[in-house]
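G., the chain you wanted modeled:
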Amino acid sequence: VVNTNGGLNLSGTGVLTLGGATINNPFGQVATDSGAHSFVFANGAVFNNAGTFFAQNDNGLLFSGGASTAFNNTNIFTRNVGTGTYTFDNGIAFNNSGTVNINSGVLALNGGGVSTGGIFNIASGATLRFNATYGFDAVTALAGAGTIEFVSGAQVIRGSYNVTDPTSVNGGSVTVNNSVSIAPLAFRGSFVNIAP
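Predicted structure as tokens:
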């Protein structure tokens, strides 16, 4: 277990590997992922963010095998600076009980995860993409002037949904179990169920 008591700056090129270990970014500390490197998780690795995490490149976190890994956000995760896609690879669960801000580019959650009371804010021009089943509890909030894309998996929206840009369902299924306001909705090769 490594505690980033002085903050953490992931930059440069090459490959950074977290294998079978845990990194804790404590409350009050800042971790920044920038540069052209590959940040690889393997063998049950876990990153616990109780501070602030800035996702600033167009790579994200890659999974290289072994037991499933996780990124647990309990405070603030912000996708900013990059205009491409910051990806949590299949095999890396993104669990959120804090606040996720997607201010630019795309945040792609390919490894699923769960949100327990989490908030997802999507700014205008930005996109939140779900490429696997994701667990939303009844107090999770999705909001903003950006776009949400549901590409695969079986999604059940139980909490508030106030996204004013288009919502795209282009694979898998989405069930809405709450009273929601959805701006333009497009779906293809998918199933949308709006429960009474």
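The first strand starts at residue 2 and ends at 3.

Shout if anything looks off.
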